[in-house]
Amino acid sequence: MTLVQFGSVQFDADLVVFDKDGTLIEFERMWGRLALAWVDKLTADLGETTDGDLAQEFHRSWGFDPQERRTAPQSPLAIASTAQFQTIAANVLYRHGVPWPEAEDRTRSVFRKVAADLPLADLVRPAGDVAGLLRQLQEAGVRVAVVTTDHRAETEQTLHILTIDHLVDHLVCSDDGLPSKPAPDMLLSTCEHLGADPARAAVVGDTLADLLMSKRAGAGLSVAVRTGAGDPALLATHATVVIDSIDDIFVPPKRV
User: What is the distance, to the nearest Å, from the Cα of residue 96 to the centroid of all Cα atoms in its chain?
Assistant: First the structure.
């Protein structure tokens, strides 16, 4: 029996499953900067300005406010995969008269250029004592998984930057071929791989998609954090408990 404290709630956990962006790392530092860089290059290719109508349409399509530097809850930028961001961008270009094959090629090229210009190490900032928490869970015998809609290559690099790759027992990403959140498949696959009962798994995430995945898979505990793009009021209606950040999670000392 391993009790883990999630804010005001204790839960007997065999497995804790974390979302990545907005949960383990700061959301806007990565995705806000990427959205601005994507739009900068996409509009420059067409001789547009970064504050013109086309730029605004890119931002609206992704759900990002460039003035406030905030991502809208329930928007593609908050939930979708990078591949889906590219499809949305190509669709915007197509609506502005760019033939579809060219729109796809141009979008892929821009995303590659931005990835080269903005190294992941400059975008990743932990949303709390990530390594300390995962180490604490490992020492208590609790398995740890990360389930994300980001690609595997970038996710593995992020875990390495955070120095937690050796502390994660299982990883599921958007390009692993499973239906993505809020479908339960990623979580059910994780539990099956680790031999864990979903009822003894806690899921920690910052969006409604994380919490819906948790409930649909029958997870024992759904934990929302306020560090990401989700609306806290909406998250509270679907979470067992809402906490400020992963720093509100710890393993209490055992009584003797």
Answer: 30
Token pair of 189 as six digits: 């696959």
> What are the angstrom distances between the C-alpha of 181 and each of 81, 147, 240?
10, 9, 18
List the alpha helices (DSSP H) in 46-151: 53-62, 76-79, 82-95, 100-117, 120-123, 130-139
Q: Evaluate whether 187 touches 203 at the Cβ level (below 8 Å).
A: yes
**Interatomic CA distance for residues 60 and 88, integer angstroms:** 11
Q: Are 19 and 210 in contact (CB under 8 A)?
A: yes
Q: Parallel, antiparallel, or unpaired: how do β-strands 70-71 and 3-6 relate?
A: unpaired
In the numeric block, which tokens belong to residue 115? 């990835």
Mind listing the pLDDT tens digit for each residue in 20-51? 999 999 999 999 999 999 999 999 877 776 66
pLDDT score, position 107: 96
DSSP string, 123-169: H--BSS-HHHHHHHHHHTT-EEEEE-SS-HHHHHHHHHHTT-GGG-S
Structure tokens at 87: 């499809």
Regions of the chain where pLDDT drops below 70:
1, 49-51, 255-256
- pLDDT at site 170: 98
